[in-house]
């Protein structure tokens, strides 16, 4: 039968599967039930087969969505032998996830990387077409892996075609696939299709069917068999189709109905299981031929080992057409048939339960443990929630709900976690359970969207938990509260409360968590002790990446940007190796922020880009906003003003959603730098002045100390000397209570530009901010400008030359051009600098080439960056001409030369 009305879609898909070697990516086909998604896919598969592509496919089944990695198992089963060649961590993660080996809980990103590597290797031998149908019903773990793969196949000979129902959520929606929306057929095409399947309809019936089907292809082909001449109740189309399919089912003989009901409830489609369970119900052997009437009724397709429904609505219509007792008996029969598969057995038993059943609840709890062990967090949450429903004991019910909520928090399922906590709170809770329920949701977005009164509540909760003899949970609660002091401003009273609780915890002062809490809560009052602990702990970097991440964040709070860069850089490799992509963007964002402040743009560019990428991929909007704001700052420093403005606007949209102060502060910094480099000093002062106004949402208590020099520079040029003096006086008072290096460095600059004698420039340069080349270059530039204004042009040139060379080396184009202009005004020519080799590369390419220059293989680079090694090779092939090299051995030299 021709595929009516889909010529344009088929043409697009034909082009997609025609040349996968050209790196075509994929498409997400969406539409209502029956709109023809499967038919369009079938045509694309036929075209791909003719074109020589290898086909791998998987289908989401509603009954399987609680079985972790079920759809991935189906997809990879034909190529599973290739997994033996995977790197050991990937191989172990994949085998464990698929239930084919026993090992530690697999990291989901290692599973994703294993799938990507395996598929990439297969595609190298023969281009691949991956078809994933009904992804809205796919288990979450498999859908996440497919989304992970979809984001990374742009350079692979792989095409991914996925289908999803309108309005249904799926991770594939945010995976970068192009979208294809299937609309209902126009009237003339619908009429042509109806006439082709039912040519002898009377005119009234034909008109009614066209009206009821409203252009839905499935309705046009299936409703004619159920139509009557008389009036019919008006029903929604999906419900009407299900009723039509249900009527076909009820017209079948009883043994066929029983067997078909079992097939509809059996999540695997196994013909052997279906026949065995039906035989137990009927009390007699059942042969495959028993299903022949269902095939003739166009409800199922029968293959040697499987039974599959021709449309999901046919599967769902059948259980809805029988009584609960019939469904219950079928589930129990299936449970007995799959008794050697405890997870499936538990779910069928649960579906058959008529009330509380602690035995089944315990089996589901065991199933949750097994799912968690395989990395199936979402499946574990579903099993625990179902176990809670079957729990007779209220305390066990609450425990199961809260445990499920903890797992939902871990997997980023905010709505699920909130619902589970709400359900738990509906019953009586023990003190321990109330504590768990109180802090459980705090992990989402670091509590940014919560009412600030929650901070003090968390402090009291931490105190009470510690008093009950649980210091570790208390510290966890306190850390969650402290994080709010970074993203928001709870006020001095709340900060003092938090600090008092921290001081009372029975943990060592050198505990990294306590050090970080003190830094976040009291960045000035405790700066001296925190800095002392940080310097002592610096010798232990690399031992524990999570500890390094804590310490990097703590360093940033107390103005120790060099330590922040050091600790966060040490954290990143360990977090990568452990596959902790949720924590990795946090360490990367701190590293990028710090490196930009130090003027190391070459290092910051790829780190900021990767932080933004992983933050977006792992659903951390405010970390994404912070990383994007850092990218805006980098663009401003490079003189890329249009890009800086666009990135700042994007970051601001994220930050304003909940007043995320570090994001908004960095946005204003980027805007101030942009305005200054464009000569708009009044605008620059207005942008940067906001960073020191406590009433402004861009005010961030700890980070403002980094911006003193930036403000001083534009204030002098904008003629805002008195306003600058007021802020500097405030910062001078603050400096008496804190040794924060960033603050004292900024004040040395501000004093120098405010000093009419110019003597404090020499003092500032003599203080030696050696680890801060950008700040030293800024001092030389300001001093050179001052000397030239004093008509000491000859004296100014040496400082201006140093500034120009410094900013050229750092890639700070806007500042370098200012130094050049000043040099020309001082009577010395200064040629324009050519583009740096690094600046010819995208941030992603720069990440790859830096690792290649260190001697890493393509496979090692791929494991670090979560790419296939073939993608790495493709990027390097494109990078070589940009850098003017022809071999990997030349990369280090090219980068060194460009950075000199």
Protein described:
The chain is mainly α and 900 residues long. It contains 45 helices and 7 strands. Strands 2-3-4-1-5 form a 5-stranded parallel β-sheet, sandwiched between helices. A two-stranded antiparallel sheet has the order 6-7. The radius of gyration is 32 Å and the shape is globular. It starts with 6 loop residues before the first helix and ends with a helix. The relative contact order is 0.05. The model has no long low-confidence stretch (mean pLDDT 88).
Keywords:
4% strand; mainly alpha; two-stranded antiparallel ribbon; 900 residues; 5-stranded parallel sheet; 63% helix
Query: Structural class, from helix and strand content?
Result: mainly alpha
Summed over residues and divided by their number, the pLDDT gives a mean of 88
Beta-strand percentage range? under 5%
Oligomer designation: single chain
Low-confidence segments: none
By DSSP, the count of extended strands is 7
Order of strands, main sheet, comes to 2-3-4-1-5
Distance between the termini: 68 Å
**Dominant shape:** globular
Number of helices: 45
Largest sheet: 5 strands, parallel
Region (Disordered): 822-843
Keywords: ATP-binding, Nucleotide-binding
Organism: Amycolatopsis speibonae
Protein name: AAA family ATPase
């Amino acid at each position: 039968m021709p595929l009516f009305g889909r010529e344009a879609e088929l043409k697009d898909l034909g082009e997609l599967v025609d040349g996968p070697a050209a790196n075509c990516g994929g498409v997400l086909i969406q539409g209502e039930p029956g709109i023809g998604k499967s038919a369009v896919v079938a045509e694309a598969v036929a075209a791909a087969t003719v074109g020589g592509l290898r086909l791998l496919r998987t289908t989401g089944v509603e009954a399987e969505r609680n079985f972790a990695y079920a759809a991935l198992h189906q997809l990879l089963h034909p190529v599973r032998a290739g997994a033996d060649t995977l790197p050991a961590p990937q191989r172990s993660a994949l085998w464990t996830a698929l239930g084919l080996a026993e090992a530690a809980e697999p990291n989901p990103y290692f599973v994703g990387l294993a799938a990507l590597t395996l598929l990439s290797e297969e595609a190298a031998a023969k281009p691949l077409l991956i078809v994933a149908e009904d992804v809205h019903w796919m288990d979450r773990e498999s859908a996440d892996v497919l989304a992970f793969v979809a984001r990374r196949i742009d350079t692979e000979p792989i095409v991914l075609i996925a289908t999803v129902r309108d309005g249904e959520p799926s991770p594939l929606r945010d995976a970068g696939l192009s979208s294809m929306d299937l609309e209902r057929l126009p009237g003339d095409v619908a009429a042509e299709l109806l006439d082709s399947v039912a040519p002898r309809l009377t005119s009234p019936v034909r008109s009614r069917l066209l009206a009821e089907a409203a252009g839905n292809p499935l309705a046009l082909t299936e409703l004619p068999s159920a139509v009557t001449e008389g009036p019919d109740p008006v029903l929604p189309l999906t419900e009407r189709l299900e009723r039509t399919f249900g009527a076909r089912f009820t017209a079948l003989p009883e043994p066929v109905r029983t067997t078909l009901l079992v097939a509809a409830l059996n999540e695997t489609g196994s013909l052997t299981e279906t026949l065995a369970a039906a035989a137990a119900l009927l009390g007699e052997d059942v042969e495959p031929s028993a299903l022949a009437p269902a095939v003739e009724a166009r409800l199922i397709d029968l293959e040697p080992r499987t039974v599959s429904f021709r449309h999901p609505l046919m599967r769902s219509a059948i259980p809805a057409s029988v009584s609960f007792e019939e469904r219950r008996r079928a589930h129990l029969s299936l449970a007995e048939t799959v008794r050697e598969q405890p997870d499936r057995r538990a779910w069928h038993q649960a579906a058959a339960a008529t009330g509380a059943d602690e035995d089944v609840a315990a089996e589901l709890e065991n199933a949750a443990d097994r799912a968690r062990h395989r990395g199936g967090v979402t499946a574990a949450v579903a099993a625990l929630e179902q176990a809670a429903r079957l729990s007779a004991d209220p305390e066990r019910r609450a425990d199961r709900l809260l445990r499920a909520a903890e797992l939902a928090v871990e997997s980023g399922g905010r709505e699920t976690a909130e619902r589970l906590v709400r359900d738990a709170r509906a019953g009586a809770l023990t003190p321990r359970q109330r504590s768990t329920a109180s802090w459980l949701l705090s992990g989402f977005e670091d509590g940014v969207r919560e009412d600030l009164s929650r901070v003090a509540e968390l402090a009291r909760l931490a105190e009470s938990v510690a008093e009950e003899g649980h210091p570790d949970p208390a510290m966890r609660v306190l850390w969650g509260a402290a994080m709010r002091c970074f993203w928001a401003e709870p006020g001095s009273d709340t900060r003092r409360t938090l600090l008092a609780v921290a001081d009372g915890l029975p943990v060592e002062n050198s505990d990294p968590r306590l050090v970080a809490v003190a830094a976040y809560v009291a960045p000035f009052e405790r700066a001296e002790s925190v800095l002392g602990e940080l310097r002592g702990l610096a010798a232990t970097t690399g031992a524990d990446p999570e500890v390094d991440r804590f310490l990097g964040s703590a360093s940033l709070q107390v103005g120790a940007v060099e330590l922040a860069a050091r600790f966060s850089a040490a954290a990143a490799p360990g977090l990568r190796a452990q596959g902790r992509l949720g924590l990795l963007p946090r360490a990367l964002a701190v590293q990028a922020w710090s490196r930009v402040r130090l003027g190391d743009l070459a290092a910051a560019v790829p780190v900021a880009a990767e932080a933004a990428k992983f933050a977006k991929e792992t659903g951390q909007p405010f970390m994404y906003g912070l990383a994007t704001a850092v990218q805006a700052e980098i663009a401003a420093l490079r003189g890329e003003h249009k890009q800086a403005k666009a990135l700042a606007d994007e970051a601001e949209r994220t930050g304003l959603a909940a007043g995320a102060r570090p994001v908004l502060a960095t946005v204003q910094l980027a805007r101030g730098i942009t305005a200054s480099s464009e000569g708009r000093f009044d605008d620059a002062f207005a942008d940067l002045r906001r960073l020191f106004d406590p009433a402004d949402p861009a005010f961030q208590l700890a980070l403002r100390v980094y911006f003193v020099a930036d403000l001083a520079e534009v204030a002098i040029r904008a003629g805002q000397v008195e306003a600058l003096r007021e802020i500097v006086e405030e910062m001078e008072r603050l400096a008496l209570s804190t040794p924060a290096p960033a603050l004292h460095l900024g004040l040395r600059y501000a004093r120098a530009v405010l000093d009419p004698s110019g003597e404090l420039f020499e003092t500032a340069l003599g203080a030696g901010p050696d680890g801060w080349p950008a700040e030293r270059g800024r001092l030389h530039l300001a001093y050179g400008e001052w000397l030239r204004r004093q008509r000491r042009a000859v004296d100014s040139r040496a400082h201006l030359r140093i500034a120009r060379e410094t900013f050229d080396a750092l890639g700070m184009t806007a500042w370098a051009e200012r130094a050049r202009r000043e040099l020309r005004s001082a009577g010395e020519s200064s040629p324009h600098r050519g583009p740096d080799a690094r600046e010819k590369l995208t941030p992603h390419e720069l990440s790859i080439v830096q690792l290649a220059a260190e001697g890493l293989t393509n496979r090692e680079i791929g494991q670090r960056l979560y790419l296939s090694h073939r993608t790495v090779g493709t990027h390097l092939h494109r990078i070589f001409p940009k850098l003017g090299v022809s071999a990997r051995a030349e990369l280090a030299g090219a980068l060194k030369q460009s950075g000199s």
